[in-house]
Amino acid sequence: PVRPHRPLPLVHAAGQRRGGVAAGEGGAPGSGPHGAGCGSGRYDILVTQPRRTLVTRGPVTEVRGGGRSLVSRDDPFALLRQALGPRLTLPDDWPQGLPFPGGALGYLGYDLARRLERLPSLASDTLGMPDLAMGIYDQALVVDHQERRTWLVGLRDGSPRARDLLGRLGRGQL
């Protein structure tokens, strides 16, 4: 099993900064434009630069990443499991409730159910949206609006990519 690095807190309650890095402060649950209970959640997960992307349209899935592109008619769920790699095992000191250590983010469309069972075609595709669109992300910023903390997850503190991301964050370039 793969063990992600312990998350790095970026912003603490009361706005204290750690290591000169600050992240944008989110509102309290229910303080969004639609008020309480209308889509406002405890966490926001911000990602960029997927390691791999998967897009399924009908019977075909395109997998991109590492400078390569593969078109497959294989089961998109099996392709997603393969793209994710080994299962993550969270470290013992992982903050309770923190929802995302890295992995797949995206959406599953209703028509993807046709890959699981026979369904009648009752509507035409007027939007042209894929049946599945997923990115595989090795890092993310997780904003906890309730605790007023932001976490950088999935990177090793000393990696060049982590240093670059933290530097860009500190300069407001994200």
Characterise the protein shown here:
This protein has helices at residues 76-84, 160-170; strands at residues 8-11, 43-46, 52-57, 60-65, 68-72, 103-108, 132-137, 140-144, 149-153. A 5-stranded antiparallel β-sheet has the order 5-4-3-7-6, with helices on one face. Strands 1-9-8-2 form a 4-stranded antiparallel β-sheet, with no helix packed on it. It has 2 helices and 9 strands; from the N terminus they run E-E-E-E-E-H-E-E-E-E-H.
At a glance:
The protein is an alpha+beta fold and 174 residues long. It has helices at 76-84, 160-170; strands at residues 8-11, 43-46, 52-57, 60-65, 68-72, 103-108, 132-137, 140-144, 149-153.
List the helices and strands and how they pair.
Elements: E1 8-11, E2 43-46, E3 52-57, E4 60-65, E5 68-72, H1 76-84, E6 103-108, E7 132-137, E8 140-144, E9 149-153, H2 160-170
Antiparallel strand pairs: 1-9, 2-8, 3-4, 3-7, 4-5, 6-7, 8-9
